[in-house]
């Protein structure tokens, strides 16, 4: 007997639910999620509908807490980078946005106090000691990175900054900042416009940087300084890419 098949979720519903999950993982409250959906995506939901979507996806604030060992590992990683300068409130926000963890703020505070007692004491006395950045000169090192906080609105940002002068070398907005072809194009266009190749490029280990890495090492292959060839491109964690991370924090 013929019948018409009707899926449980239409394509529009799936996209809507993905948006709900994305906003939830960014740490927004229910009312804020509803407001974003209505103002940015013209999607109207009730609180009951929102809670139903979250329940179906297994998303909970309290009953689905992240394993403490995962949280400890993430906080240790942050403390080795720019996280050494932040308090427990900002660290809690990083756990939510960067790692997608559901964890209580009090848990983060306790873990941070155990892992970094000296830092907690210093911050409580308002005697925070900032790390010093020292550049060797213009175009010695370029820092490149992507900015993902505007992705829920359809804007993927990518930028580069000169480590010494803090000059913004490029600032591009596109639907994606993960395509290595486009990142390499930004890099080559900048080199053509400035007429100079940086001695070192600093970036994280994302796949979007593989073409830039290959181009930079090729262009510097025949150089005779201590940063020639393989050493002309430096990989590292995004949080320790200090110069551009500092600039992102001002946006």
Automatic annotation (TrEMBL):
Gene Ontology terms for molecular function: nucleic acid binding
Gene3D superfamilies per UniProt: Ribonuclease H-like superfamily/Ribonuclease H (3.30.420.10)
Domain Integrase core, residue spans: 133-250
Annotated InterPro entries: Integrase_dom_put, RNaseH-like_sf, RNaseH_sf
Annotated protein name in UniProt: Integrase core domain-containing protein
Organism from which the protein derives: Paramuricea clavata
